[in-house]
Amino acid sequence: MTPILHEHAASGNCYKIRLTAALAGVAIERREYDITAGETRTPAFLAQVNANGRIPVLQIGDRFLPESGAACAWIAAGTPLIPSDRFDHANMLRWMFWEQYNHEPNIATLRYWTTVVGLDRLSEAQLAQVAGKRAGGAAALALLEGHLVDRTWIIGGAVTLADLVLYPYTSRAGEGGFDLSPHPHLRRWLRQVEQLPGFIPFT
Length: 203
Known about the structure:
Number of domains: 2
Strand order of the largest sheet: 2-1-3-4
Strand content: 5-15%
CATH class of the largest domain: Mainly Alpha
């Protein structure tokens, strides 16, 4: 049974799952949706795939698993991408939660507004959030830079899901107007991820 990834390929949240599957050696099928055309808001999608109207969703048989972190965890179960040490496992989850709460809402949102919507076409409500999201994204990148000063990987000793979920939007932060040049340790870490056996690019 090959799981099916319901996705929009340009989304970093969807790419996280493809990258995890590639590194874990798990085959997946892909089903593309045009989010700008409302294809994840149709009655059929809401009833059958995700009542929240969002992707990615990983379909396993007749069951559907929304949320990128949950899908990555299902794919990586039983592999070294999930630490066996109890503290390291919890620490991995901590960084995955942080990515969704502090990192992705700022960096990914500005990337989407810049490359898809267009900053000149934002609503007044969106424009009012730009400065805060820029500050929040810069703070997240600075925190990662400081964390990686004396660490090879996010958890320390080996690549884990924490690295894989943080890589996509960090690697594309420039598309949202963020400058990575002041962060040499962060850039070194990005190159390390890209050199992993089985790595697939974000395309």
